Amino acid sequence: MNPSTDTTSTVIAGILLIAVPIAFNAAFAALAAKFDYPDILRKPTAEVLAKFSAGGSALVLLWWGFAMTAALLTPLAILVSDSLQGAAPALLFAAAAVGVVASVVQFLGLIRWPFLVPYLARESAKPDTTPARREAIDIVFQSFNRYLGVAVGEHLGFLFTGTWTALVGVAILQSSNVNGWVGVAGIIIGIALALCSLEFVGPFEIKGWKPAAVATPFVYIVWSLWLVVTGVALLM
User: Fold this and answer.
1) What's this model's pTM, rounded to 2 decimal places?
2) Quick check: helix, strand or coil at residue 207?
3) DSSP string covering 54-123, please?
4) Distance CA 37, CA 135 (A)
5) CB 31 within 8 A of CB 66
6) Which residues neighbour 167 within 8 Å (Cβ) at sequence distance 6 or greater?
7) CA 33: distance to chain centroid?
8) Tens-place pLDDT, residues 132-182
9) For residues 60 and 215, what is the distance between their CA atoms, to the nearest angstrom?
């Protein structure tokens, strides 16, 4: 790779590290304001779908945009590995691969909202929908929520995102173009994020592991700030 290409990758990586967490948190805040997310998920299915229908096309597009922020983690992970000068190639490859997996599972967890949920909401809203069909809609919605939402999007999303963050932290410690304290912070935050993935695993699957449930929002905010700081460090 020639120096100009290397510089371009670093600049794009830095921009994405700053832009992606801002976009993610902006979309999350908009969903919280418009859809009462994620608290709405504790409501009965019929109430969730009714509120979803009330949001109209704007809410569907918002969910689509939220899913796209997860997709952007793919080029981000690849370009970050390409930008850390001096780190072990095997470590950088592993970080990029894990980052892509983290992007994919988060995307799969979110993409049901702009495609599957609108159909369920329309069917639920029909006046001639039978009680048996409403029960089927409830089962489908809750099953996909547990599978794609909790298992794939949250559990695997937190696990692989945390692992990617920790690997990038180690790579930063080996690199020559980012200060080592950013790497140490990445390792700590990555481990914390991976631990948050245990909220609904094993004996915690019914009520959840309360420490993880309490810590997750704060860890995600700190993780977002770490991404921005890392992006600024690369651009400098």
Assistant:
1) 0.91
2) coil
3) HHHHHHHHHHHHHHHHHHTHHHHHHHHHHH-TTS-HHHHHHHHHHHHHHHHHHHHHHTHHHHHHHHHHHH
4) 23
5) yes
6) 91, 94, 95, 98, 190
7) 19
8) 999 999 999 999 999 999 999 999 999 999 999 999 999 999 999 999 999
9) 29
